[in-house]
Every structure is written in structure tokens, then in C-alpha cells.
Specification:
alpha+beta, Multidrug efflux transporter AcrB transmembrane fold, HMGR, N-terminal domain, two-stranded antiparallel sheet, binds adenosine-5'-diphosphate
Length: 975
């Protein structure tokens, strides 16, 4: 009840700051103008001789000077305390406002009672010594925890309701205690105590009314100046200090204070109203003296001059005080910066402790809290949470620990955002959102209760992790559906991890597999199932690669040391040589279902039917209906006995196209089934496609994009930069890449390490890494060229680059960032398909750079040296341990390049140019894209079509979407 009144009062003050401030200032000014500035105002020593105006004794002067200096020092310390909240000026200003306002208020009250305001000057040191800004700090802490202005008001109200009763009691106590002094018959003491009482009352009024309004206004102004950004640092510091320093008042002491106040009240009532009944109000008599009226005199100088003169000459103690105040102000403004450093350190320590706590509790699988289960559910309400967890200065005894608890997601998130996100282990753990980790110290509720909650409106989010795990175990929640049922991807992942850890019986086993802060919404239903985290892979950048006159910085995700550095060197050589030229010579993704007929003869009849141009057009018509982008370009049919393998070849826009081909082929087969009722469809994929397996058909016919890159490296660059000669390179290329691979019976492996570059770029850009099998097919050719055959002509021919810039893993934000880096993210709005072709060209160009560099290193015998330098972890290697010999190294998987050469020739590149027997028109103009101003056009369109694919909301492409989805489910089975 009492705290409700305080709360309402606090909320009113904080929500009407202007009204309160202007109102207070107006009232004060009016009251002052009534008495202070009237003609009858008397200023001690200026227009009358007062009692205090007489020369002070030497010893009195000393005491007064010391008291005043102490008061200034005390004030300085108070401001330092305020500064520990992380605010150099903000809170200082509001604290000063409070002191000034309470001083002015005291003056007003003195004047209202008809007292002598000049006496206040004497009382000033004592007044300052009574100032206690700790309560102001406490209220500020409440206010600074807020993120919105609305929260500022609520929090100030909460602070007032919490601090208000205590400060009221303290003020009453102080007034009564100091008031005892006014009962003495010592005139000076009486008057001092009287001023003391007034200043306590004024201080109280200022704190309760003026200060909350000022605080609210100042925070509002600061926030507006920061463009609405929350006072993050202050929030964090408020939290740290809250954790470390806040103590609640002891209820026993509060009790004693109340008893003491009651006793003192009796003393006062007895001495004022019973003993001295009928006397003139002692209070006002203390503030005025009749003697003064008798000593009026004419002022000798203007008031300002009087005060200045008095400050400089007459009152040496004021001068001391003034000098000290100036000194301390300078110190505060310019030399107290170490306070901030200390605070930053504390903040870091606190967040580290917090991270440790979080990761410990994650390991334990339980959260630490003592709240009852009822409270747990209740405390999801943010306000409730705050009431339970914010520190009160007035209530229970124990220091409230900064708890990892429900409803606390936002702050922790902000706190953690300030730390280094590059670290994937402990730090990543700290991004875990406590909101979803409901405490489980209480025994889990019964299965019936849990099921009831599960089926209620609140759903599983009201259950604790432990309860959800038991529901998963009892098969009420399918484990794979956790994310969807909880409607919280990260919590789903966390619970799955916990379940896994329980089976592993080793709590720390997944500590280094990060899981938080990941865009799981893109993963779910598209990229991965049963998710327990994500695998961070280092991404390096090679380049710039000068390709067709443009520069590209190529992202490569790899854990093989030397790879990026070597590719980079190749790029450098290429750039200095004028760059790479690339051509995309073919484009066609493939899918080849296998169908069976009753006999080989019947199969051959169907084959003939399919090779007829008109019939093919019928097939195309049916195929093309399945997508806006997939357009059938040809059919390649082979027969094996009574089996037919129909290889559908189609352009797929910017998508890699496997799903599209599957859909189209399925539709075409359905149409063929109508034509040939005896056709038995054995599988949508008959391995003649061929996906993710080494196959000559891909090498010969091509798959995806077929690209050739070429460059001429002048002799001087070969010699200076690559440290070898053209002739050595040409020789080595024949011996190794051509003869060596032929001897090995390789299919498409006529290169040094194309797979290295292909895979690294595939991982970085969200391609399907398993497709590196075919995509790495590459023929590297080198020959001497130019005048005197002194330069090197190098080319890489890659017939099967299966790449896309839309769909699959390209939708994931990090991967899409890498695509963006290359300028090929998403769908190419002007000409769908161009992005994917450019990506294929970039990959081929980078392969060429990698080939050039590695071949040069091999030729120059640099390989071993560079690997020793870059591809050896020095961790745990003892200083005196000798490095392995090169013969040792050649056995390591990373050092397999030092293979021997043989003399044999045998390879051909005309495979990729092979004519497709049937050529069909491609209509790619019907792609529709709308741009989003916040995203690059390419990414915008990628996201949109991805969203469409996910939500299935597009009318225009609903068929496409549905089939895309169906096929994506089947993808695994048919690849
Ligand atoms: P894939 O066929 O490579 O597996 P997906 O089927 O996962 O790729 O994603 C391709 C989706 O993107 C299709 O639904 C397609 O309609 C849509 N899309 C949007 N723009 C393009 C584009 N320029 N090229 C290809 N597909 C596009």
C-alpha cells in the first residue's frame, strides 16, 4: 500500500519532468520574491550589523575553515561516487541540481518563516555534510537500467517505491535527532540545529520531487542526443555496481530507527507543547533576532561588491574553501579518469564471471535459482522479473547476486555484444539466452501437467528444459521438431545438445562447438536437421584476382595452411601479367532417371521417339512448366539392355539446379508415362546424371557450367615472382598433370590441386561441398608462347562447375556475405544466370592462380619450405625438437604434391565441347524481381525468392515452390 503510493508518486514525477521542474522553480521563485527581494531584506554586514558579523576568534576561524574544507572534500567524494556509475557529467549534473534545489528550498523555508537568510551561510558546511548522494545514485541506477523512456519512468517509480520509505524514515529520524539540539538553550547551537532540520526537510523534498523529474529529463535528453540509443554503458555499469556494491538496509536498523523516532517525538512534544505551551513559536524565534532590527544601517557599497570584498578579504576561510573547490573540480574533470578504467575492468570481470556461470550452468544442464516453479512461470513477466532481481536499498538483508534468470535476455545480449565475437568457444556460450532456460531445481511437473501446458496456449515455452526433455523421451515431442514446436530455434538446439550430452556422459565434450548467435531460421527445413551447433571454418581471402578486367577478392574457407597464401601469390602473378580471361562455354545441369521396358527392342523404340525433335519439344513443354528458370536444353539418352537413361539437361538460372532438374524430370516422366504405359520408372536418378560421383560423362559432356580460363605470364614474372622458368613449368605440367594423371587412370584430374580451391570457395560461398567431386574436374595446360617462346600460356578447363548463387547453403548469412563480396549474391536481376556463370568463372580463374603457384613452387622446390613455414602448427612443439625431414613430410596427407613424374601422354579436352544433339531455346526473361532498398538488388531478390520457397505464398510460382519443396525432401534419396 505504502509502496504503491510511492510508486504512483515516483511515476508521476518521472513522467511529468517539465511540469515538476517548472512548477518547483516557479513556486521557489515566487516564495523568494515574496520575502527575499523585497525592500525589507536585510543582509548581515551590508545593511545592518548582526550578531554573527563580529570578528571571529582565531580558534573559531580555524574550526570554521576546517569544517568548510571538510564539507567541500565530502562533496567531492560524493561526486566521485556518482562517477563510479559511469557518468562523468550526467549524474553529476542531476546531483548538483538536487543539492542546489534543496539549498534554495531551505532558504525559501527560512524566509517563509521570517528568518535570517544570511545565517544560512554559516550553516552551509553543515548543510553540505548532510548531503547524501548515495540515495541519488541508487535512484539513478534504477533509471539507468532502462532501455526505453517508458522504462525510465517505470524504473524511477520502482526506485522511489523502494527507496522512498527508507529515505522518509531516515529524514524523520535526522530531523528529530538534530531537532534535539534546538531544545538546548545555547543560542548558536539552537539556530544551527534549526537550519540543519530545515535542510534535511528540503533535501527530502528535493529528492522526492525535483530529482526524479530531473533524472528522467536528463536521461531523455541524453537518449535523444544519442539518436535513441540506450545508455548501454551506463546500464552495464549500473548492473556491475549493483552486483558488487548494493546492500539492502538492515530491517533491524530500520526498526531501531522507528522506535528511536517515536521516542524523540515524545521528547519534542513534551518539551515544546507541554512544558513551553503558550510560548511564542520557538522555531521562528530561533531564526530571527530582535537585536538585528535595532542595528539597521545604510549600505556603504553595492551588494555584489560587498560579497566580493568579503570573499577576498574578510573571510579567509571562504577563500580557502573556494581554492579547494576549484582544485577538486579540476581534479574531477581532468585527473580522475582512472575511475573509468577501473570501472571497465570491473565490467569485464563481471561479464567474464557471468560467462563462466552461464557455461557452467549449461554444462550442468540445470539453472541456478531458488525460485519456486510458480514464480518461474510468473517471472516471465518482465516487470516481475525486475522486481525480483533489481536491488532494493531498503529491503531485505542479503546482497542480491546478479542472477542468470528468466526474462533477462535483453541486457545479457547487449552485454555480450560488447565482447569479441570472433571467439567461438567460451564467448559464444555467453550468447546463450537465459530467457529460455527455465530453472529446473524444482522437481519437474508430472507428465499430465506438462502435457496440459504443452497443449495450452502458452505451449512448450512455459516448460522447463528438463520437462521438455522428458516429453521428447516419452515421444510427445519429436526430437527433430523441437525448434518448430518451441518456436525458438536456439532453444531447440540447446535442448538437443543437452540430450546429447546426457547420453555422452561427458559434459564438456561439446564446449567448443558453438551453437548460439546463428541464423537458424535459414537452416531449419532447408540446410540441416537435428542441429546441435555450427562449424566455424576460417575464411581467408585471396586476390585480388584480375578476371576479364575486373578485380575480385576471393573468399576461401579452409583449414589447410598455405592454400590461401599460395593462391594469393598466383593471383598476384596473374594481376601483374594483365589478368585472366574466362569464357563460359556451356551451361546445363543434368538429371538422368532410369526407366525400364519389357525388352531392349521396346527400349530402343522409345529412345528413337525421344530423339525426335517434335517429341522433344513435347517433353520440354512439360519440363519447363515446373519452374520460372529451369529450361530444358537437350536430352542425352543411353541404352543398356532394356534400361533407358534419359539425361535431362537444362539451364537453371542462378541456381545450381539440382532441385529444379529433379522437379522438371519428374514432370516430364509423368508425361512420358502417359505416352508409354509400359514404361517402368525405376528411379528419378539413375546415376547417369552424374551427381557427386566421379564420372566420365560429366568430364565428356559437362555438367553445370563449363568454363575455360587462360592467361599469359611474361617470362620475367615467372622468374622474379614465381622463382622458376617457363620451360621448367611446361615440362612439369606435362610430366605431372598430364602424364602422371593419365598413369593414375584419372577422370578429370589433370591438374595439380584444383579441388583445393574449388572446395575452399564452395564452403565459403554456400555451395554443396560434396559436389567438389565433379566440380574439381580440371585440365591444366601450359605451353611456351610469345616472341621467342619466352612467356607462359596457362589455361584451366573446367567442364563441370556445379555452382549457384541462390538456393541451398547460399541463403545462410555468412555464405551470402561471401557471395556479396564477389558481387554475385542471389539472382541476377537483369539476366538470370549471369551471377552463377560469373561465380563459376571466378572459381576457374582462382583455380588457375592456384595451379600457377603450386606448380611454380613444385618446380622451384619451394613446396617443402613453404609448408614447413605455414602448414605446421607450432603448438606443443618443443623448442629443440627437430623438424621432420622432407621424406617424412611426403607421407603426410598435406604433402602429397611431391609425387613422381612419368612419361605418358593421353588426354583430350574436346569432351567439353561435344555437341549436344538437341538444342532448345531458353526463355529466361520471365524472372520477376522487386528491389528492397535495404539490400543489394541481388540479395534482395535471393531472399525474396527464398522466402517464397519457404512460405509457399507466391501465386505465380506456387507450383514451382511446391515442387521445389517436395524435391528438396527427396534430394538426399535421389542424388
Ligand atoms: P537448386 O535447384 O539449386 O537446388 P533451389 O531449388 O533450392 O536450388 O532454389 C532455387 C529457387 O530459387 C527456385 O525456387 C527458384 O524459383 C528460385 N529463384 C529465384 N531467382 C532465381 C534465379 N535467378 N535463378 C534460379 N532460381 C531462382
Amino acid at each position: 500500500m505504502l509502496s504503491d503510493i510511492y510508486h504512483t508518486h515516483g511515476y508521476f514525477c518521472a513522467s511529468h519532468p517539465w511540469e515538476i521542474i517548472i512548477g518547483s522553480v516557479t513556486v521557489t521563485t515566487c516564495l523568494l520574491s515574496v520575502s527575499l527581494f523585497t525592500a525589507g531584506s536585510r543582509i548581515c554586514g551590508w545593511n545592518y550589523v548582526c550578531e554573527n558579523d563580529k570578528e571571529e576568534e582565531g580558534s573559531d576561524l580555524m574550526i570554521l575553515t576546517v569544517t568548510r574544507c571538510l564539507a567541500v572534500m565530502y562533496l567531492y567524494l560524493q561526486f566521485r561516487n556518482i562517477r563510479q556509475l559511469g557518468s562523468k557529467y550526467l549524474l553529476g549534473i542531476s546531483g548538483s541540481l538536487m543539492i542546489i534545489s534543496s539549498f534554495v528550498l531551505t532558504a525559501v523555508i527560512v524566509k517563509v518563516f521570517g528568518g535570517n537568510i544570511s545565517g544560512l551561510g554559516e550553516a552551509l558546511p553543515f548543510f553540505l555534510l548532510l548531503v547524501d548522494l548515495s540515495k541519488a545514485c541508487a535512484l539513478a541506477q534504477y533509471a539507468l537500467k532502462s532501455k526505453t523512456q517508458e522504462e525510465v519512468q517505470t524504473n524511477i517509480a520502482e526506485g522511489i517505491s523502494s527507496i522512498g520509505p527508507a529515505i522518509t524514515l531516515d529524514s524523520i529520524c535526522e530531523v528529530l535527532v538534530i531537532g534535539v539540539g534546538t531544545l538546548s538553550d545555547v543560542k548558536q547551537l539552537d539556530s544551527m540545529c534549526c537550519y540543519g532540520c530545515l535542510s534535511v526537510v528540503a533535501h527530502y523534498l528535493a529528492f522526492m520531487v525535483f530529482y526524479p523529474a530531473c533524472l528522467s529529463l536528463i536521461i531523455q535528453i541524453t537518449r535523444t542526443r544519442n539518436n535513441g540509443r540506450p545508455l548501454l554503458q551506463l546500464q552495464q555499469l549500473a548492473r556491475v555496481l549493483e552486483k558488487e556494491e548494493e546492500k539492502k538496509p538492515n530491517p533491524v536498523i530500520q526498526h531501531i530507527k522507528m522506535i528511536m523516532s517515536a521516542g524523540l517525538m515524545i521528547v519534542h512534544i513534551h518539551s515544546r507543547f507541554i512544558t513551553e505551551e503558550g510560548e511564542k513559536s520557538r522555531f521562528s524565534s530561533l531564526l530571527t533576532t530582535t537585536e538585528m532590527l535595532e542595528r539597521d544601517r545604510q549600505p556603504e557599497m553595492p551588494l555584489v561588491q560587498f560579497y566580493l570584498l568579503r570573499l577576498l578579504t574578510h573571510h579567509i576561510d571562504y577563500t580557502f574553501m573556494f581554492v579547494l573547490a576549484v582544485f577538486l573540480t579540476v581534479k574531477y574533470v581532468f585527473y580522475d579518469d582512472h575511475i573509468e578504467e577501473e570501472l571497465t575492468r570491473k565490467l569485464e570481470e563481471a561479464s567474464q564471471t557471468r560467462r563462466r556461470e552461464l557455461s557452467d550452468s549449461l554444462r550442468d544442464g540445470t539453472s541456478q535459482t531458488t525460485e519456486s516453479m510458480d514464480n518461474i512461470v510468473q517471472s516471465q513477466d518482465e516487470t516481475d522479473f525486475k522486481q525480483k532481481n533489481t536491488v532494493s536499498f531498503t529491503q531485505p538483508t542479503e546482497t542480491i547476486e546478479f542472477k542468470f534468470s528468466i526474462g533477462d535476455d535483453s541486457d545479457s545480449e547487449e552485454e555480450d555484444k560488447s565482447s569479441d565475437k570472433g571467439v567461438q568457444t567460451e564467448n559464444k556460450m555467453s550468447h546463450y539466452k537465459p530467457l529460455q532456460r527455465l530453472p529446473s531445481l524444482q522437481p519437474p511437473r508430472s507428465m499430465e501437467q506438462c502435457l496440459e501446458i504443452l497443449n495450452s496456449d502458452g505451449g512448450p515455452s512455459l516448460l522447463t528444459d528438463e520437462e521438455i526433455i522428458s516429453l521428447v523421451k516419452s515421444r510427445h515431442i519429436p526430437a527433430y521438431k523441437l525448434e518448430i514446436m518451441l518456436n525458438d530455434f536456439e532453444r531447440g538446439v540447446v535442448i538437443r545438445r543437452e540430450m546429447l550430452l546426457n547420453t555422452l556422459k561427458q559434459s564438456s565434450v561439446l564446449d567448443n562447438l558453438p551453437y548460439s548467435d546463428y541464423a537458424y531460421e535459414y537452416v531449419n527445413g532447408a540446410c540441416c536437421e537435428n542441429v546441435i551447433g555450427y562449424m566455424p571454418v576460417p575464411v581467408g581471402v585471396a586476390g585480388p584476382l584480375l578476371l576479364n578486367g575486373k578485380l575480385f577478392h576471393v573468399p576461401m574457407a579452409t583449414t589447410e595452411g598455405c592454400l590461401v597464401a599460395s593462391t594469393n601469390r598466383g593471383c598476384k602473378a596473374l594481376e601483374q601479367s594483365g589478368g585472366v580471361t574466362s569464357v563460359v562455354i556451356n551451361d546445363g545441369m543434368t538429371r538422368a532417371p532410369v526407366v525400364r521396358f519389357s525388352s531392349a527392342k521396346r527400349a530402343s523404340e522409345v529412345k528413337k521417339w525421344l530423339e525426335d525433335k517434335d517429341n522433344q519439344n513435347k517433353v520440354k513443354e512439360s519440363f519447363d512448366t515446373t519452374s520460372r528458370f529451369a529450361r530444358l536444353t537437350s536430352l542425352h539418352i543411353v541404352q543398356a539392355g532394356k534400361l533407358l537413361y534419359i539425361r535431362f539437361i537444362a539451364v537453371t538460372g542462378d541456381a545450381m539446379g539440382m532441385n529444379m532438374l529433379s522437379k522438371g524430370s519428374e514432370k516430364a516422366l509423368a508425361m512420358l508415362s502417359l505416352e508409354f504405359a509400359d514404361m517402368e520408372i525405376l528411379s528419378l536418378s539413375g546415376n547417369f546424371c552424374t551427381d557427386k560421383k566421379a564420372a566420365a560423362v560429366n568430364w565428356l559432356e559437362g555438367r553445370g557450367k563449363s568454363v575455360v580460363c587462360e592467361a599469359v605470364i611474361p617470362a620475367h614474372i615467372v622468374e622474379k615472382l614465381l622463382k622458376t622458368t617457363v620451360q621448367t613449368l611446361v615440362d612439369l605440367n606435362i610430366s605431372k598433370n598430364l602424364v602422371g594423371s593419365a598413369m593414375a587412370g584419372s577422370i578429370g584430374g589433370y591438374n595439380a590441386h584444383a579441388a583445393n580451391i574449388v572446395t575452399a570457395i564452395f564452403i565459403a560461398t554456400g555451395q554443396d561441398p560434396a559436389q567438389n567431386v565433379t566440380s574439381s574436374n580440371c585440365l591444366t595446360l601450359m605451353e611456351a608462347t610469345g616472341e621467342n617462346n619466352s612467356d607462359l600460356l596457362i589455361s584451366c578447363t573446367m567442364p563441370c562447375l556445379e555452382v549457384g548463387t541462390i538456393g541451398g547453403g547460399t541463403v545462410l548469412p555468412p555464405q551470402s556475405a561471401c557471395l556479396e563480396m564477389l558481387g554475385v549474391c542471389g539472382s541476377c536481376a537483369e539476366n538470370p544466370g549471369e551471377n552463377a556463370k560469373l561465380l563459376a568463372s571466378i572459381i576457374c580463374g582462382t583455380v588457375l592462380a592456384g595451379e600457377l603457384s603450386l606448380m611454380s613452387a613444385l618446380a622451384a622446390g619451394h613446396l617443402v619450405r613453404s609448408h614447413l613455414k605455414h602448414n605446421r602448427s607450432t603448438v606443443n612443439v618443443l623448442p629443440n625438437q627437430s623438424l621432420p625431414s622432407s621424406s617424412d613430410m611426403s607421407q603426410s596427407p598435406h604433402h602429397s604434391h611431391t609425387d613422381s613424374s612419368h612419361k605418358l601422354l593421353g588426354c583430350t579436352i574436346n569432351a567439353i565441347n561435344s555437341d549436344h544433339s538437341i538444342s532448345m531455346s531458353v526463355d529466361s526473361n520471365n524472372a520477376q524481381t522487386k528491389s528492397n532498398p535495404f539490400l543489394s538488388p541481388a540479395c534482395d531478390s535471393r531472399r525474396k525468392s527464398c522466402d517464397t520457397t519457404k512460405s509457399g505464398k507466391s501465386n505465380e510460382n506456387s507450383n514451382d515452390v511446391k515442387l521445389d519443396k517436395d524435391c528438396s525432401n527427396k534430394k538426399d534419396k535421389i542424388s
